[in-house]
Amino acid sequence: MAGTAVRGRLTWQIATVSAITRETARAVTITLEVPGWPGHQAGQHLDVRLTAEDGYRAERSYSIASAPGEPVVITVERLDDGEVSPYLTDELRVGDELELRGPIGGYFVWAPEDGGPLLLAAGGSGVVPLRSILRYRQRSGATTATRLLYSARSLADVIYRDELSRSGGGVEVIYTLTRVRPPGWRGHAGRADAALLADVAWPAGQDPLAFVCGPTSFVETVAGALTGLGYPAGRVKTERFGATGGG
Amino acid sequence: MEALDGNAIGGLLHEVFGTEMTAAEGTCAACGARAPVAQAVVYLDAPGTVARCRHCASVLMVIVARRQYRCVDLSGLAALDVR
Asked: How many domains does chain A have?
């Protein structure tokens, strides 16, 4: 299949799972071998398609978590009533095959020459494409001053926590925990709102560039707050995956 | 039903148009607002896939699967500028 893919066309192809890493109780990171992968940009996604024995098909989009030049990696969060994610997080094994197409998207993508400073805002697993951006920033040697605002239910729900704790060199990670805070937590609490954004966002006068990804309500709130702070619409890139993530 | 955005139909649009479309700029035929397709308000199962203008909520695109065909209605767009 991959051998017959026409350049520029988007075709379904078979990938092989080469590694699975558990990130949190509900999220796993899946490394894929994709024959003929044309390479991806930071922030892009891919579509996964599962076909049941009776022919029923379900398709979902997953953000690519790895930087351009790295193997294709996705991180999937389990949604209990989902049609696709429980299979990916609980059943999938190394060596299994997975049908996918990608890379997809040309709007929610970042390249070092896009300028900054960079504000990355993640709601839950919305951190996945932003991790690709962070890794690319590091791999490319970009020095763009960067802040990641990450809204998670609890510290235990933070995906890539170890990796994020090691980010340095111009990257600042700011958490807000919406449901459970550890004793003595001194970080932000509650959902991201205009007051929090006013506190952590780069001043609009610095010509910042923002990438906002998460549940629809999170994205609306954050993008609205940034517009209120004077960010031009063209400098606030948004990606919404719904309250449930789609399954 | 949950509203997503045009990123969610990047794969479908690529399939229909044969190229990346989320960064393409669409102009709403109703209100004239111009924005990247990625910014449209998208419902995946409306039935069919429906993209609406984020400014005035008018329907921009409807894509319906019919056996092996995709029926694509773009009458809500005054222009669609692909980079």
From this structure: 2
In 3D space, the residue among A152, A158, A163, A149 whose CA is nearest the CA of residue A208 turns out to be A149
3 state SS of A57: strand
Alpha carbon distance, N-terminus to C-terminus of chain A: 27
Task: Assess whether A74 and A165 both reside in one domain.
Answer: no
Which domain-ending residue is among A48, A77, A104? A104
CB contact under 8 A, B11 and A241: no
The parent domain of residue A8 ranges over: 2-104
Bridge partner list, A60 = A48
Verify that A117 and A56 share a domain, yes or no. Answer: no
Say which CATH number the domain at A189 has. Answer: 3.40.50.80
Q: What is the pLDDT of residues A14-33, one digit of tens each?
A: 999 999 999 999 999 999 99
The closest CB to that of B11, out of A47, A241, A243, belongs to A47
Residues in B touching A110 (Cβ below 8 Å): none
What is the ipTM metric for this complex?
Answer: 0.94
Q: Do A96 and A30 have their domain in common?
A: yes
For A9, the closest chain B residue by CA position comes to B18
* Domain match, A99 and A127 both: no
Q: Which residue of A has its CA nearest to B11?
A: A104
The partner residue sitting opposite A104, judged by closest CB among B3, B10, B36, is: B10
A135-161 pLDDT per residue, tens: 999 999 999 999 999 999 999 999 999
Cβ pairs bridging A and B (under 8 Å): 71
Chain B residues close to A233, C-beta within 8 Å: 35
d(CA A246, CA A123): 15
Which of chain A's residues have a Cβ under 8 Å away from the Cβ of B70?
Answer: none
Q: Which of A95, A45, A54 is nearest to A73 (CA)?
A: A45
